């Protein structure tokens, strides 16, 4: 029959083991099984809890380096010497179980570390897969955007070639027909035939212009046009931020491109700017174009007031700024000039008028 002392030692060992299992993340918890082993040196009845204490102590120091292992050996050695003085069957069984517990604790620590390393590798792999998927989506989006931009640019090029080539030829033909009508005005039959030719040529010119406008209306992408202007405007660095929720109508797109072209040209030619910022914002009721640069402020724009209205009748205002104002106001918008903290052209075009 176990003695009360043996039962008390066993309960103390179970308590230490439960505490280590619950609070094993704290390094100080590893001192509990060490204290049990040191206290058990004075009483051979403590042998009943030695396997549990050895298991928890070895588990606590299995991944803490040589100094921790040295401390564990120091804690176990006195108990081993004390148990050798009492070589009973219970003591022998406890010593054998303690050795098995130590091996089991070492193996359990190795398995836990391997599992933690596997989880870390899995998390890292999942992170890399997610990053690759995001990169692939961005590449596909960029490829689709470039394909669409190339198609729109090609349509614009075709429209311009038709306008510059066929349009000029038809216009010249009309002038020649009208000249022939004036030269043969006395011949009614010839005048009638020439009038019919002129009518046909005029219809062909109108049809050609309608086709060109149809191509041009869908062939101008705002972001592509602004980035193209940024490259060849003469300003060393131009940052373009153009991501509207929906593409503006063709009239608005052409207006914004024209205003940006004029503003960047003025910034490079008159302001000697090195950096410019072009931003297109899409609000529920209007589009807003902002072109800022770090160049010098024109003399006509210098004023104590930080915000000026760019009216065409402003004293000293350049023709380019007046042209920008006319374009914006033709669509019901407003053009304003901001002189502080840097020279800024601010164009606002309402959506209901476009």
Question: Please, could you describe this protein's structure?
Answer:
By secondary structure, the chain is of the alpha+beta class. It folds into three domains: 4-120, no CATH class; 142-218; 222-350, 2-Layer Sandwich (Heat Shock Protein 90). It has helices spanning 4-22, 31-39, 50-61, 66-85, 89-183, 188-218, 222-232, 250-269, 319-330; strands at 237-242, 275-282, 286-293, 307-309, 334-338, 343-350. It has a six-stranded mixed sheet. The longest helix has 95 residues, at 89-183. It is rod-shaped. The N and C termini lie far apart (100 Å). Residues 304-316 have low confidence and may be disordered.
Topology, pairings included?
Layout: H1 4-22, H2 31-39, H3 50-61, H4 66-85, H5 89-183, H6 188-218, H7 222-232, E1 237-242, H8 250-269, E2 275-282, E3 286-293, E4 307-309, H9 319-330, E5 334-338, E6 343-350
Parallel strand pairs: 1-2
Antiparallel strand pairs: 2-3, 3-6, 4-5, 5-6
Helix pairs in contact: 1-3, 2-3, 2-4, 3-4, 3-5, 5-6, 7-8, 8-9
How far apart lie the N and C ends?
100 Å
Can you count the helices?
9
Class computed from helices, strands and strand pairing: alpha+beta
In percent, how much strand structure appears in the residues?
A: 5-15%
Taking all residues together, what is the mean pLDDT? 77
Helical residue percent band = 55-70%
Note poorly predicted spans: 304-316
